[in-house]
Amino acid sequence: MLRTAPGAAQFFASAIDQAGVHEIIGTIAGDDTVLLISRDPVGGQALADHLLRLAQKER
C-alpha cells in the first residue's frame, strides 16, 4: 500500500502502470491510497524495500 496526497492516487497508479515495472502485475487506486500487486507471491517485501529506497533518493 502506498499513500498519496488526497486525489493523487489514480494519477500515481497510472504512472506506475505506464512504467512497466516487471515486478508489479497491477495497481488498484482509491483517493489517497494505491495497492500494488506483486508478481511474486512472496515478493511484496522486496518490492516495498525497493520503492522505499527510490523514495529516499529524492530527499
Count of alpha/pi helices:
2
Query: What percentage of residues falls in helices of 4 or more residues?
Result: 40-55%
Overall morphology: globular
Over all CA atoms, what is the radius of gyration? 11 Å
Largest sheet features: 3 strands, antiparallel
Distance between the termini: 20 Å
SSE pattern: EHEEH
Structural class per helix/strand content?
A: alpha+beta
Pick out the low-confidence regions.
Answer: none
**Average pLDDT, all residues:** 90
Q: What percent strand?
A: 15-25%
Output the strand order for the largest sheet: 1-3-2
Q: Compute the number of strand runs.
A: 3
Organism: Streptomyces luteireticuli
Keywords: Amino-acid biosynthesis, Arginine biosynthesis, Cytoplasm, DNA-binding, Repressor, Transcription, Transcription regulation
Pathway: Amino-acid biosynthesis; L-arginine biosynthesis [regulation]
Protein name: Arginine repressor
